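Our consortium's second objective concerns turning raw sequence data into structural hypotheses that experimental partners can test. To show how far this objective has progressed, the report includes one record in full. It was chosen at random from the queue rather than selected for favorable results. The single chain below, 334 residues long, was entered without modification.
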Amino acid sequence: MTRATVLGTGSWGTAFAATMADAGTEVTMWARRREVVEQINRGTNEDYLAGIALPQGIRATTDAVEALAGADVVVLAVPSQTLRDNLAGWADLIPETAAVASLMKGIELGTTKRMSEVIAEVGRIQTQRIVVVSGPNLAREIAERHPAASVVACTDESTAEQVAAACATPWFRPYTHDDVIGIELGGAVKNVVALAVGMAEGMGMGDNSKASLITRGLAETARLGAALGADPATLMGLAGVGDLIATCMSPLSRNRTFGVNLGRGMRVEEVVTVTRQTAEGVKSCQSILQLARDHGVDMPIVEAVVGVVRSEVTPREMVTALMTRSLKSEGTQR
């Protein structure tokens, strides 16, 4: 039996742990808080997936040494901007032969590194052991066993297949891939586009407006991907347009919901206070914009969202700025 360790007990980490347990994988979860561990060991995680019973085969602990001992697959499911600090404490505990899978969708502030790059650097993990999982995977729907598909990407095919086998169920279908860059960029940028779409929703705009933002957001992602060496076709798949649609259109999306509140006139700090959550797009939008500038890529939607997050412009001013840009061909890539 495959043994997996999930480091982090948020909604997606818990849903993925449940999926692996359903697939027959023995799962240990690590949590910082004792009360969360006790909940999971009783079969629920009310803080993040209220009302959902977790399958048998999952146990939890606050002891990282205990959690990681003997793991075949290690799943990192912490907020992207905390990965570096967390991984510094876990690096020496991760078994040398374990596949290390990232559920995180962000670009690190300051370094502009993708999560797989942080894992390689801080965790001293060889790239052929690093896996990225991404797709249209809203956590509650996954935990409720709604049929869904995802992408498991790694430069080494056998490692990707190992992780895919550990999470494949009749209702969760993983596809393997080797374009780690494209998969990660699709997952990170879609959160920022979802903020913009949410703002449009919050301002009362219709489906034309939202579809335009989604489509042009995909074009921005493709430009950045091409500059970084990703295959443009990757972004037409599950981890690109699939994840983008789900995150931009679903009320279950944290980033979309955050954007709705911004569109209704709230400031970032007010949304955080009310919801007690910070969306990944809010954290990563500035690092994505810096990454784009470093590579000479124009990303006007991302730049506009950064302006709103920094309180430099209002959402309505953001829309005006986007709509009055100079005219150009849709095929223009720069």
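The partners drew two points from this record. The longest strand covers residues 148-153. The chain has two domains: 3-178, 181-323. Both points have been shared with the crystallography group to help prioritize constructs.
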